[in-house]
Structure formats: structure tokens, C-alpha cells
Amino acid sequence: MRLPRRGTRAVSRQKTVPTYDFNNVVRPLGLQDESLSVPALSSLIYTPIFKNPTLIGTLPGYYNSACGITVTVAPTTNLYVSAAAYDGNLARGEQTGLQVTPNFNGYYFTIGEVGYAWRLGEHGMPGTLAVGGWGQTGELSAGGVTEDGAHGFYTFGSQRLWVRNPGIDNSGITGFFQFGINDSDTRPAHTYAGVGLTGFGLVPGRPKDSVGAGVAVSWLNRNLGFRSNEVMLAAYYRMHVVGDIYLQPTVTHIPSPGQSQSFSPATAITMNVTILF
Q1: Helices vs. strands in the chain: H and E counts, helices first
Q2: Is 100 in a helix, a strand, or coil?
């Protein structure tokens, strides 16, 4: 996590993409030791790595940004506290990404998060832990069910597990976890848990390459006709081509797609080209 400098307060009042600031497990660690720095803790591309499924339909994000205010305070170099309030009309199906101004009609989304970072062991392996809570106001409806607002809790964290060349480069292995739960009868998922591993520079002669895998399990809302749960398995290899260009093949497998009991297992092979600038 990139923490503001000690004692700083950051305030943002604009149309924003809150998934960058909240529940962002892949955000790179802000480290003074450049030998351990990485561009991102994982290059997985499935949805849960970007937005905890228990927040789908409430937390604004790409492509549905929202007007709001975000405040972040960092009393020390290891601790931050963030709080925000946004236009919450996404929860009633509005495409907030197309709106220039907020709606003040009783639908509001509020969220708060506290995070802490540390260095572990003789090699100073970085780790993070964050917890957050959120609330959505207004009448919510889905699958013939109506409820007055919704609330939820989430946590996520990461830890460098192994450093191959201490003080020389960032090669090694990092692990992360995610968890979320809500009390909603209208959101797509009510509980979520995910874990993953990322290896950096493990292939001889390929210091900029990375490899990773993840498992994401969502317990779904049966009121919407879904299966009871859905498991997603993914693995990738991100290879450096030249300069700031990377090529990444990813394999994703869903043994029991949650959309319907009638859906067969699904496997997708995706090829991404990334240009950093």
C-alpha cells in the first residue's frame, strides 16, 4: 500500500473510482527498499481481485465512477485511515458512470478502511493488513425481495513469504488473502474468500517476469436464482518482452458457474498485452 507521508491528510472531492482506494489488495507496497518493490502484488485478471464480490452492486468503480468525497489520514508511516461517502444510486441500477453530477435522493454509499503495514524477519519482508466496513442506504430490490439498505465487512492482506536474493532484487514469493461478508438479501454474493500466490523473477535470466495463481470462492444469493456458490481458479505467466511491454497468458477455470445450475464447467484462455507508462 502506498501510504501518504506521516501526518498528512488527503481529501478528494470529485467523481472518483473508489475501487482504487478501498479493498484494493493488489496495490503495490510503498517501500524505501527498491530491491523489494513490485509494480503490483498480483496480475490476476478475474473480477474478485479488483472488487470483492460482496461489494458488487454497491461500491462504485470502473466503469461506474461516482461523485463523492474521500478523506485519508496517515498518522504514521505504517498506518492509514480512510473514509468516504459517495452517490449510492448504483445500488438501484443507475449507471453512475454516465452522470456528471450526484443525485441527492436518499441513496448513499459510505465506507471506511484502516490499514497497517510492517516488515517481517531479518530480511524485512513487507506485509499489510486492512479491515473495512460499508453501508448502503435506500430501498434495494432484486429477485422479488426488497430491503432497506445493506451493510458489510471486509478484510484483506498480503505478506512476502520468501526473498531469494535479499538486498539485491525483488525475486521471491508473495501471498495474499481476501474476505468479505454482508447482510444483504438483494446483492449477488453474501460471502467471499480468496487467496493467491505470486512469484517474481523466479525464472533464470528473466528478472522482470512473474507467475501467479489464485482461488476465489463466492457464496451466492439464491434469491436471484444462482447456485449456492461459485469457485474460480486462475493462473498466469507475465513475461517481459522489451522495454515496458509485457505479454501475459492467463488460464481461468470455473468448475460450476454460479449463474445457473444448468451451466457446464467453463475454461477461458486469455492473452493480454500490457504497456506501462
Answers
A1: 0, 12
A2: coil
Residues 6 or more apart whose CB falls under 8 angstroms from that of 44 comprise 26, 196, 212, 214, 234, 236, 250
pTM score > 0.85 for this model? yes
* Non-local CB neighbours of 230 within 8 Å, separated by 6+ positions: 217, 218, 220, 254, 256, 257, 258
Question: pLDDT digit string (tens) for 117-155?
Answer: 999 988 889 999 999 999 999 999 998 899 999 999 999
3-class DSSP assignment, residue 53: helix
Residues 6+ apart with CB under 8 A from 262: none
Parse the chain into domains and list their residue ranges. Answer: 8-275
What would the pLDDT profile of 63-81 be if each residue is shown by its tens digit? Answer: 889 999 999 998 988 899 9
Q: C-alpha cell of 198?
A: 505470486
**Domain 8-275 = CATH 3.30.1370:** no
186-215 b/e (C-beta count within 10 Å ≥ 16 → b): bbbbbbbbbebbbbbbbeeeeebbbbbbbe
